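Example 3.2
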Amino acid sequence: MKYVDEFRDPQFARQLVKRINAEAKHFERPLAFMEICGGHTHTIYRHGLEHLLPENVQFIHGPGCPVCVIPMGRVDDALWLANQPDVILTTFGDMMRVPGSQESLLQARARGRDVRFVYSPLDALKIAKENPDKKVIFFAIGFETTAPSTAVTLVAAKKQQVKNFSVFSNHVKIEPPLRAIVGADETRIDGFIGPGHVATVVGSDAFKFLPTEYNKPVVVTGFEPLDILQSVAMLIDQYLSGAVERGESRVENQYSRVVRPEGNLAALKLLDRV
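Structure, written as tokens:
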């Protein structure tokens, strides 16, 4: 399949749902699969995928988007920066409404603070060049998906000798929260629907620690309805084949049209440098 509409084809969806329902009958207990990325959660709800699966196949909603789970104190820090003299605070649009302990960045903007949303940190760098008398700060957020764009911007700022640009970095890695989830042993998780966007940077091999250390199967997955249904079928197959029972669970790459095992080596090298 090459086009978006093919990944939403009702006929293919019905075939996958029929397969999942048939295979799920072999299990005496429910199987719970955690989708790691908030983009997957959005697709699941938007297309009603949870209602298509049998009762003994369940979704557990995982860490989600860093914007959704950012500590309130980090937002307060950004608000403090926005309140400093001669500061222009920039960030992605979805950060504007996230509440701090007193207010959001959007509310600070309504009070007259110079807070601007940008589509890219390079836009923030452009604002810095256009306002040399101001201190322009980019409130950086995101997993490894967005971190390379911040790194590219910092390299560009140094090369162009832009002295009034800085980054308030709140980038986070995907591995620590996953280790915390499986290590806490508070929720039964039978497999993971791996985050396709993060994997475009870090690669599908970055999730090998889950099957290797915890015997949890992972399927790195795209963001269309058929992507997610196929990943559920692939996870179930690892149970039906006996791989999980033998301690041989593995990482599979459903999103192979975008993700490589080794990831984006240029982006990883840049992140290490910056």
